[in-house]
Design brief:
Length: 481
């Protein structure tokens, strides 16, 4: 373990350290999807579970005279943000007030894009945490890419409202990490709804949760099943990617023969497990890979190259700092905690400067995530820890840069960078108004907009959102908040 905690590292020396940390890996860069040969795969039908989300009615709203963190590294002081028709329509100074617009006095306030948590289990492990609600791990087989996390989401989870109060407007909900392939993940809008489909982010790409390391080998090794070792993990993944390639081949042959006019053909039998893996090879489903150790992340990158897919994000990634350049070269984000460590062996070699080193690599993509129903309520403070750790290294990380770890980078990690994460014209108007610098422990959210509609207003406590589960339970509601 490299201990950087008591040393001030100048930026030039930091770069040298990062080169040294990544020089030991010879893993080749994964070619981008456009540069690879793509296989013809099983035909895709529209999802049988489409989003029914509809933005709430909104009025044009102008936030006037605030400190604005755009989300892309820029900061504007004494600036305005204009929302209309559910979109950001202008960001600048002394903007004209549209007819009929609501004007919010932003003097002394800070404005950011809505925060995004790319690793949440809200809804699939909801509150209260009882066995009846344990729906995140289909731990009946080491491979379950056929299951979808969205089919376990309980919209009444009080954690959604608590997360909203912390500024979270979008969540990426994943299955748990018991399995090599844990199932599909889903992005949702953090709104009150009766069905998960009413929360489902329209046309967002799904993810496929994979897990390496201790979890799969512990769960199934205890049952005397494969995997019981890390080499069993890799063998299990590779065997199924080979199956997926064969599935693709069978569909390609069927389509070719059908196009040639062959009669009495039967299409290959549908397989929900292999349909998911084929979706990854088609670049439609993003890999979200639970992985702690640097050596295992390097192995996974090699495997992705072998089978022609790309890892979008390594989650938890406590040793990402050791291969920060390798991750950046392969366009892989690292979704990390600020300072969780030591709760199992693969998390032992963590350092609190992890997010800083990943970010400092040229093209590095740091994301701060929660994996916690409590942590999701204070992700801004987790980033504040990173800013403090950076100062200990001699690196002054500005708020306008750090906000990217919860907005623009997070949107990229889940394939939504064209729609959310930055306050710019045309993007969804997911906006948070803070009482002050969001990286202060004293800062509170004051107003939160999702698609331009006011969804949280601290000044009107009677109108604060409340889960159906908590209605009529004022004592419980007080505890949750």
């Amino acid at each position: 373990m490299i201990d950087l905690s008591s040393t001030h590292w100048p930026r030039t020396l930091l770069t040298g350290v990062m080169v040294t940390l990544t020089a030991c890996s010879t893993t080749a860069t994964v070619a981008p999807p456009a540069a690879r040969e793509r296989s013809v795969v099983a035909p895709v039908s529209p999802t049988p579970y489409p989003s029914t989300y509809k933005p709430a009615a909104s009025v044009p709203t102008l936030i006037r005279g605030a400190t604005v963190l755009i989300g892309n590294g820029e900061r504007l002081d004494d600036a305005d943000v204009l929302m209309s028709d559910g979109k950001i329509t202008a960001v600048g100074r002394t903007l004209e007030v549209p007819t009929g617009a609501v004007v919010i006095d932003g003097r002394g306030k800070w404005v950011t894009p809505g925060l995004i948590d790319v690793h949440s289990h809200l809804g699939v492990y909801p509150s209260p945490g009882v066995e009846a609600h344990s729906d995140g791990n289909e731990a009946t087989s080491p491979s379950t890419p056929n299951v979808w996390a969205e089919h376990s989401i309980w919209p009444q989870d009080p954690g959604f409202e608590a997360a909203l109060e912390g500024g979270i407007t979008t969540l990426h909900v994943l299955p748990g990490s018991a399995n090599l392939f844990g199932g599909r993940s889903v992005s949702i809008k953090n709104i009150h709804a009766v069905s998960y489909q009413s929360m489902k982010f329209p046309d967002a790409p799904q993810g496929l949760k994979m897990a390496c390391g201790e979890n799969p080998k512990r769960v199934y090794g205890n049952r005397r099943q494969l995997p019981s070792t890390r080499m069993g993990n890799v063998a299990g993944w590779r065997a199924q990617w080979i199956e997926a390639q064969e599935y693709i081949r069978d569909w390609r042959q069927f389509e070719a023969r059908s196009a040639a006019g062959a009669k009495d053909l039967r299409p290959p039998k549908r397989d929900l497990r292999l349909e998911t893996l084929a979706g990854v090879l088609r670049d439609e489903i993003l890999i979200q890979h639970h992985c702690y150790r640097a050596d295992e992340m390097a192995i996974v990158i090699d495997m992705a190259r072998e089978f022609g897919y790309r890892v979008s994000t390594f989650h938890h990634a406590t040793e990402a700092y050791k291969i920060s350049n390798l991750l950046a070269e392969n366009n892989v984000c690292a979704a990390v905690w600020a300072d969780w460590w030591g709760f199992k062996m693969e998390s032992y070699d963590a350092i609190p400067e992890n997010m800083i080193l990943v970010d400092a690599a040229p093209g590095g993509c740091t994301v701060v995530h929660s994996d916690s129903a409590e942590g999701i309520q204070r992700l801004n403070q987790e980033v504040a820890k990173g800013i403090a750790f950076g100062k200990r290294m001699g690196i002054d990380i500005k708020p306008e840069h750090a906000i990217r770890w919860l907005t623009a980078n997070a949107a990229k990690a889940i394939g939504l960078e064209k729609r959310i994460g930055i306050l710019e014209n045309g993007k969804m108007a997911d906006v948070v108004v803070w009482s002050g610098n969001p990286f202060s422990v004293y800062a509170l959210t004051e107003k939160i907009y999702i698609d331009g509609a006011l969804r949280f207003d601290r000044s009107v406590p009677r109108n604060l959102p409340e889960s159906d589960f908590l209605l009529g339970q004022p004592a419980a509601a007080g505890v949750i908040r």
